[in-house]
Model the fold of this input.
Amino acid sequence: MKNFWCEVYLDKLYNNLKIIREIAGDKKVIAVVKGNAYGLGIQEISKAIEDKVDYFAVADIEEAKLLKTEKEILLLSPLISKEDFSTDLKNIIFTIDNKEIINDIPEELEAKVHIYVDTGMNRMGVKGEELGDVISQIENKLPNVKIEGVYTHLHHTSNVKYTLKQIDKFKSYIEPYKNKFKMIHCLNSSGFINDEIRTACDFTNAIRAGNIIYGYDGMGKGLTRIYNYYSKPVNVCEVKKGETVGYGCLFKAKKTMKIGILGFGNIEHFGFSKDLRKNIFIDVLKAAYNSIKFRPVIFAGNRGIRVLGRSNMNITIVDMAGISKDELLRVEISPILADSRIKKIYYNENKEEVFFDGNISLAGDE
Ligand SMILES: *Cc1c(COP(=O)(O)O)cnc(C)c1O
Done:
């Protein structure tokens, strides 16, 4: 037994969505469930929120196939290729993010599209001055394609001034054609929770929400993290003073002590502390601990637990001083980085386990 699992709290998920709706007002909510719903289970999460969101968005057609939904699914730029247009999924909205791809679309295709406009990310996207041309090419060549929306991506929201300029750029690019678009969107999570940025996006009528649905803590809007990883020691044993622990003798006991063996390690993608530090799930606790000598990533209650030596493939060893063998240890790991195979348990508001029905197939099991 690994004794290592991820708990997902659906009541928190729903509460986040409720807050998002309240702030969003009339704007439609496009739930971004790419990357296996940020690691929390694309099928379970999409099922759980299906009647609480307006659209879904995924990164590629393979992810779209996993969603069992009647809702429309926006395929986000930039992972769209010619082959995708032959999908038999009827509820896909394609993104057109370059001129060339228009020639790859079969003439008879009946579909909706959004146009992705580049406003400085320079990754993909139709340039502002090409927008008119792209619109008329689609209208002229593809009689059954309906241009329904236009969007751009805010890629540097920590710089509000930059972002406001970017939004202005977007606004001016789409201004001449705005009546053609039913949907105009650019707000992502970090833009959405910033009042100034959100206000500047008054001309848009949808948001693309990822992070804020799952776990943006500490942004003052009452949004909370919907998951926790937990571990219970598989075994607890004693190490005598002067002895070392684990590979490379990286830890030497200064006194006789109790150590705990935890059943996770690099395979679960644990142990890359640099990555954890860049983790987008900013945790208030973590910030507080930042100022003291070690930076715990495993907690018993609020107390940081010391990892002894370094995690190896499937095991992490910790100092068990003052901790009982049965204590639940919370492990700080981002679900985005964590192995998607880690067991997930979904709970409702009464802390009862929720099972999603048998329609949920494994990835690729179509
Ligand atoms: C991932 C993604 C989002 C969601 O971003 P968050 O910051 O998680 O809300 C929105 N738009 C696009 C184009 C994305 O790729």
Notes: The longest helix spans residues 10-24. The mean pLDDT is 89.
